[in-house]
Amino acid sequence: MDKYEFLYQDPSRTPEERADDLLSRMTPEEMMYQVNAITPDNDNARLGIPPLYCTECCHGALEDYATIFPSTISMSATFNPALVKQAGSVAALEARAAGKHVCFAPMLGLARDPRWGRVEESFGEDPELVAQMGCAFIEGLQGETPNTPDKNHVMAFMKHFVADGEPSRGINGAPVEISEDTLRETHLLPFERAVKKSNVKGVMPAHHILNRVPCHSNKWLLDDLLRKEWGFDGCIVSDLCDIPKVYSFTVYGGGNLYHQHRQAVDFNEASYKSMRAGIDLELGESHVPFEERSYGGGYLRDILSGRWEDGMDVLKAACRNVLIVKFRMGLFETAVRKGTFAIDNQMIELAKSSEGGESYATAMKLGRLPAMPKANIGEDEYHIDFVSHNRLAYQLAVQAPVLLKNDENLLPLDLNKYKKIAVIGENGNAVLNGGYSPGNFRYHVTLLQGLKDAVGNRAEVNYAQGCTIVPEDTGFTREWEERRDQYIAGVPEAVELANSSDIVILALGGNRMTGGENTDCDDLFLTWAQRQLMNAIYETGKPIVLVLNNGHVNAIPWEKEHLSTIVLTFPLGQETGNALADLLLGNANFTGKMPCAVPQNVGQVPVLYSVPYWGCPKKYEGTGRDSLPLWPFGYGMSYTTFEISNVVLEKSQIGAGETNTIRCTVTNTGSRAGAEVVQMYIRDDFAQVSRPIRELKDFKRVELEAGESCEVVFTITEEMLRYSMNGKWIVEDGTFTAYISNCSDVDEGFVFTYKK
């Protein structure tokens, strides 16, 4: 202790010991400053407490010029956790280089309703897929030592806890009613895995009311379950709007517990209820003065006045959790300042123009720009190898798109046959980075630019927008009737281009106006203007490759029936055009699989494979309406073919604590290299309660050359056989069926018995 005046200054002590010592020296006002996620540098100068800077990292750090990976749902379509982990590492490094310590990511909500605007932020509809991909991203963000991240990693705050992806009417923040047992088996599973497997250090609750209790004041959720049952030892931060007044949102002013949920009589009571439930940090707006924050002056005065008997203890507990984060991050040992990427002027200029007739994006892709931007944060210098980061963004982008249909083998494009290629549709030449992307970005390659770069002088690529993608009413309002012709004014030009071309790449879907956070929808069909454009192009009789790019799936029954070739993708980030061009031309092979099902119409929602059997046949009696989706979860085609054979289940019976093994041979039976995602599903054949038809329990992505085979082995654990009964996990004696397939639509399985 001779070297240090106080114990909390000694880095050889544990973060908990240091936090306890520092807490004993703090005034109540200093404690209250600490429980704000946005804290000015001088708030705690007396004790030398450093600030904690936060950012978003859904699919890359939300910082100017940071690498923009494909959206979360796109990354999930790769079924490649190893690549997703690498993306998390890159996001963490770039966040730290920009002076940030905490990333509000990943989003582990299950996207169970495609009307929900935040589908693109999710890893999909399935709890096992979300768990595996989410844990991979967390492990990338936090590194190998999550309790003490190094200078290249951050603390991950998983969100939104819990069940925001199945809201009433598909509306973001709408109330959710789900039984505890169903919660544990579905929405809670990825979060539990993140705590127990990946040691995630942060949590952000969801906006909504869960089973009549707001998530932001739900003590059972945040304390009894998360901390006590699961053993979570990190920090919990509020989401924006839920506790504080929010001045930039004038619609309802924030403060959901008080204004919206009506669970508190004033802002101070809302602050107390949230903090008592377990929320340590208030995420508020940085410009709001201390006196006006929810975790601020007014709340502190109520605590000191004795309004709540345990008010001071609640504040101390929250402050302690925040201090532990700062000690774990090593912030007290580093002179920290908030920074930004120090990218040299040459690189900025190249981003705005081209070099030697070659687009900046292509030069970056090929590694022809040696410049390495750097940033100095305190004593640490960060050299950011954007060239390798761009390559990783390309790898993810090229593995994410899903080939849904290719009946006439229009793909890959034969440039000997198609000399004039028409790219038609707004999304053919639009920036489609997805939500939570930086406004200032290094580059973005559109589909049009990517095709032009890839084709070169081998074919002619021309473009027509055709129509405008805008949110619309149902067409019955006078305003819409007056304006709608404006949105299709470009259709004649597009038709003229199609008629003079050999093939049409029809680039449709959505944009930030038709989907995203707080931009939900009640119609899953393509917009009216896009349907007019599509019909007009279809009437030309030209071959059409439909490329859909949207933040959620569209219902496309007409398109499936009438068009021979359909590619579906979610936002692909900065490498959109390079990836799509290589796939369309056959320079790369399609390997993506659907992370959620494609419904026939909005009335079919939710259309999940992992549900119990219907109480009636698959066809709704007397209507002829099919209950099946257009394409199921896990589906995706390739330019080659695969065969799964020699499926062998090792044991016919296992007991408590034992495992089983199921293995198969996967063969690339086609003429070119490709990748297949082998998926293992399990069904509990008979149980006390009705169980899902089947549930994904594991998957493996294998890459094979033409004619090559490999063995894939899955281990069936006791945990895979359990289900929740009255809040407790149980495994019943009886038979189970294991399925091996390349999508969720599988019938033939292999039966084994479990007996304790």
What does this structure look like?
α5 packs parallel to α7. About 5% of the residues have low confidence. Strands 12-17-16-15-13-14 form a 6-stranded mixed β-sheet, sandwiched between helices. With 756 residues, it is an alpha/beta fold. The protein is built from 21 helices and 27 strands. 27% of the residues lie in helices and 18% in strands.
Keywords for this structure?
single chain; 756 residues; alpha/beta; 6-stranded mixed beta sheet; 5-stranded parallel beta sheet; 27 strands; 27% helix; globular
Per-chain topology:
Blueprint: H1 15-24, H2 28-34, E1 54-56, H3 72-77, H4 81-97, E2 102-104, H5 127-142, E3 155-161, H6 180-185, H7 188-196, E4 202-205, E5 209-210, E6 213-214, H8 219-229, E7 235-236, H9 256-259, H10 267-277, H11 297-304, H12 311-328, H13 345-352, E8 354-355, E9 358-359, H14 360-365, E10 374-377, E11 380-383, H15 386-399, E12 402-406, E13 420-424, H16 447-455, E14 460-464, H17 478-487, H18 491-499, E15 503-509, H19 528-539, E16 544-549, H20 557-562, E17 565-569, H21 576-585, E18 642-649, E19 653-654, E20 660-668, E21 674-684, E22 695-704, E23 709-716, E24 723-725, E25 728-730, E26 734-741, E27 750-754
Parallel strand pairs: 1-2, 2-3, 3-4, 4-7, 13-14, 13-15, 15-16, 16-17, 19-27
Antiparallel strand pairs: 5-6, 8-9, 10-11, 12-17, 18-20, 20-23, 21-22, 21-26, 24-25, 26-27
Total helical elements: 21
Given helix and strand content, the structural type is alpha/beta
**What level of helicity do the residues show?**
25-40%
Question: Spans of 5+ residues with little confidence (pLDDT < 50)?
Answer: 336-360, 365-372, 620-624
Estimate what percentage of residues fall within beta strands.
15-25%
Strands, count: 27
C-alpha Rg (nearest Å)? 27 Å
Query: Which whole number gives the mean pLDDT?
Result: 90
Distance between the termini: 56 Å
How would you write the strand order of the largest sheet? 12-17-16-15-13-14
**Main pleated-sheet profile:** 6 strands, mixed
Global geometry: globular
